[in-house]
Structures are given as structure tokens and as C-alpha cells.
Amino acid sequence: RYAPGHPFTHFTLGLVEYMNGDKDAALRELREAQKGDKGFQKDFEETLNDSPELKGMKEDKEFLGKLFPKQ
Q: CA end-to-end span of the chain, whole Å?
């Protein structure tokens, strides 16, 4: 693993895992990114809005519900 202590690494790996079809791995990586980045949700939403290739993730309500559970 490259730079496992850096949230951006987990963020990027999470996106790649999702695009490769491994939603469980994507969720693990994105949750790790969340732990180390106070602005994670804002950064995540901006990335989804700016990246047409992530349209499927943006529309995946089940996945997003797991990543951002309602409290």
C-alpha cells in the first residue's frame, strides 16, 4: 500500500475500487479517508459533481447511504 496514513490515498483507492465493481472495498477505503479528513463529505461531493465517470456512484443511493448514514 502506498501512503496508507494519508486520507487522499484511501479516497482515490475507494473511487478506483468502486469503478472496478468492488463496492465493499470501496466502502472500506472511503471510510478510512473519512476518518482522516474533516472535509471529506464536501470533497467527496465536489468530486462526484465534477467527474462524469462517477455518475453511477453519484446515483447509487444504497452505497451513499452506507457511506453517509443518517443519524
A: 32
